[in-house]
Amino acid sequence: AEKLSSLKDKDWNDFLQRVCSLLGSTEKNTGAARSKLSLLYYLCTVAVHKEVASRLISSQLFPILIQQLRAAANWDIRAKVAQVIGLLALHTSELGENVPVSEAIILLTELIRENFRNSKLKQCLLPALGELLYLVASEEEKREHPRECVVPSAAYTVLMRCLREGVRLFHW
To answer: Which stretch is the leader sequence (predicted)?
Structure first.
């Protein structure tokens, strides 16, 4: 993480380009899925560094993570993507205006609602949703003029329903 945080802009952009290319790949073979999972494990490791998390969440990587959360056929990949999103939200020091947080919140809410009876899956998705909601609330509290991040009431409804049913929120 320290090495990543010290990269010059050109090297950082090259790194991001390679990461986004690998994650955005539509290959469906076992090797591609394994490569994506390995990359996601790596991102979980570096996402705990505040500067790296802030740079990653504000980059073109975040929309690709959302796309993978929506489209990946492999639920192991989806679960790890959710973990990366949650860790980025937890460790970022600032949230840029162009980060599609609302889209991520809406998608996580939909996935939890669609898979409500699958408690293992909820345990993967709920922490990311909770961290994003906390990040949005923290950012609004810091700013005089809160950003336009519309949090749908369905997100709070799903979260409260899960809490009532006793699902653990944090597992990583």
So the answer is: none
